[in-house]
Amino acid sequence: MNAALVYALTGTALFVLGVAGLILQPHLLRKILAFNIMGSGIFLVMVGLAQRAGTPDPVPQAMVLTGIVVAIAATALALALARQLLDMSGEMRLPEEKSGKDRLDV
Question: How many domains, in total, are found in the chain?
């Protein structure tokens, strides 16, 4: 088992944990953290599989570096929106969607 396979398997495990946290956790801050864990798993898979004949390929590594910067900005935006939701509603949960029977059809 080489290092690239270890990175790819670890990244896959992080991605699965992030998806599970995103689905199972009702608290908004935990959903944001799960989304970051999921993104970290994707970055780890990309770095682990970015090799050509045993030498690292710089293009996927540059994409991962750009993705990290975008993920930080997206996390900051999500936290700012979560803070506004907390100020407006008093709780860190997304409003639940009403079932089809409760909605008015227009």
Answer: 1
Asked whether 46 and 14 are in contact (CB, 8 A), the reply is: no
| Distance (Å, whole) CA 106 – CA 96 | 20
- Angle 61-34-8 from CA coordinates, rounded to 5°: 40
Task: Say which CATH number the domain at 74 has.
Answer: 1.10.287.3510
Distances (CA, A) of 91 to 26, 27, 80, 88: 11, 9, 14, 8
Domain presence at residue 13: yes
Task: Render pLDDT for 24-76 as a digit per residue (tens, 0 to 9).
Answer: 988 899 999 999 999 999 999 998 888 777 788 888 889 999 999 999 999 99
73, part of any domain: yes
| pLDDT exceeds 60 at position 105 | no
